[in-house]
Amino acid sequence: MSAASARRSETPLVEGEFAFNHDNFRTIAALLYDMAGITLSESKATLVYSRLAKRLRTLGLRDFDAYCAMVTAPDATDERATMLNALTTNLTRFYREPHHFDHLRDHVIAPMVDQIRAGARVRIWSAGCSSGQEPYTIALTLLSVLPQAPELDVKILASDIDSNMIAHGRAGIYPSDQVEPIPAALRERWMVQDKANDEWRAGDALRSLITFNSLNLMGSWPMKGPFQAIFCRNVVIYFDEPTQEKVWSRMVPLLAPGGRLYIGHSERLGAAVSHFNSDGLTVYRKKEGAGA
Question: Which residues are catalytic?
Answer without folding.
Answer: 51, 160
